[in-house]
Amino acid sequence: MKIQATYIANLFEYASYKSISEEVLRNCLIEKGIDVCNQNNTVTETDYLNVFDAIHKTSADENFGIHYGCYLNIKALGFIVQISLNASSIKQAVFILQNYLQNTFPLVSLEVEENKGKYILSLTSKIKNVKLRNQVLDFVFCFIYRELKLMLSNDLIPELEVSNSNNVEFEKSLNVEIKEGRRYGFVFNATVLDVEINKMKVKEIEILLPKYLQMLDKKKTGYKAFSIQVRNMILNLCSPELPTFDQVAIHFPLSSRTIQRKLTEEGLSFRKITDEIKNELSTYLSKGHKMKTQDIAYFLGYSEASAYLHAVKKWETELVS
């Protein structure tokens, strides 16, 4: 069973936020010097699970799968554009997802069932170690849910069902109600089969994704090491709205108070970092795309244009000083 090497690259990147070195993790690989950023390279199932499990155990994060799945969202934003450009219905999108998993990450399969007015997607895995299997299913479940949420209008979002008792962490991380059931499932009303995938959200992603990626790659002047990590985590978690402090804090092996103290020592705060991100996005959207104020407000998470304009005035005052 071969897995695309870039899945290891994603793990290495996330491990850096947990203060786990890539050099240590490479010792888990058969081919220690493999270029994990090359999409043409592959690793074995054992390679992948050894690295995944090493990060899980070293970080001592019992919700590692959930947190990692949410972190991968910026990757999901890029992939969802490709799905939406090639699919006009949920069935087509699911077919692409199934092939994507089969060809790049065959540790998990996506199964389809139509029953009693419901269209049900279920994640399954043949990983023998139960705890490890659940962690992997947790991360793929979060990854796929965030993609489905971006593909569909709000009235078509599926009910979520997981087969373990950790619903609270799922609900906190995904901001959605979770039912405890017998599977990792996405339960749609069958009416979803008759509608076109929502193209409005795809437009959001097409506009914002290049900017997010540019901001991740660009060296941020005036930021020290820890502040850069926090900023990059915020950008990775965008969907496309920015995450809260609590949603960011769970990805670091530090208490909330310690995170705030370290930022203060570097002359910043979580709020100032998010305001600078919003300000940069605001400038990008207003100048580069000639968008209406209401649309920019919506993209940046404001329910009213007046609240957004008030924020702009505040940025102009606070961020310049």
Topology:
Layout (H helix, E strand, L loop, with lengths): L1 E3 L1 H12 L4 H5 L15 E3 H15 L4 H8 L1 H14 L3 H15 L3 E8 L2 E8 L4 H22 L7 E4 L4 H8 L3 E3 L3 E6 L9 H19 L7 H13 L7 H5 L6 H10 L4 H19 L4 H7 L5 H14 L3
Parallel strand pairs: 5-6
Antiparallel strand pairs: 1-2, 3-4, 4-7, 5-7
Key attributes of the depicted protein:
5-stranded mixed beta sheet; two-stranded antiparallel ribbon; 3 domains; 7 strands
- pLDDT below 50 for ≥5 consecutive residues: which ranges? none
The tally of beta strands, per DSSP, is 7
Radius of gyration: 20 Å
Please state the average pLDDT score.
Answer: 86
**Amount of helix:** 55-70%
Largest sheet: 5 strands, mixed
- Which structural class do the helices and strands define? alpha+beta
**Largest sheet strand order:** 3-4-7-5-6
In DSSP terms (H or I, runs of 4 or more residues), the helix count works out at 15
Tally of structural domains: 3
